[in-house]
Here is the input.
Amino acid sequence: MKAPISFLFLTCLLLASCSSATPNPTAEPITVQYTAFAIPWLAALYDCAGTTVVTADPRSADFLDLQTADLALRLGQPDNLTSPAYQIGSDDLLVIVNPQNTVKQLTADQVRGLFDGQIQNWKDAGGSNAPVQVWSFATAEDLQAIFDQVSLGSSPVTSTSRLASSTDEMNHAIAKDINAIGIINRRLITSKVFDVFTVTSIPVLALTRSNPPEAITNILACLQK
Here is the structure.
């Protein structure tokens, strides 16, 4: 009977040794804030993060806060930017209409007139005799801020503009109304709308705090490849 008891004792020692072994260190989780128009770059970020746990928090551009996030993804660089910014891609800002609209191309001046309300009928832009329905995003959104600056300058969007709460709503609104016009970035355009003007190319930026930890710099380097 002594042999089995000795074997049992040895087994217990081995189990105790295994259970008290120091576990492998795991990467600290990171928090990423992103705007609706930067969603296409989230997949690449997850790939670059590897086994690191990523908490993704959608926000309007005006509410990105690097005091509570390790990284922030957005389109374009705001005038008041104080955090380090790394370009991880680019995208085009497009003006879109319904595919059944007879207007297939617009000029910069026509885009300005349509969105600031000087052109209220499609016939004045080379289209059918029908009222124009403008769609826009909230001014807190990065894509809208860039459009306002590049296309409208000091002019505001017409007061008759309808507000899209998401990129899905923008695409859907234009797709169901032959007289509608709106904006979207190329990476999020659907086949149910038609682009008639490219406003500008926009850098996609990853923002971080000064002197980010190695895990963040590794992710940034991966995103820039």
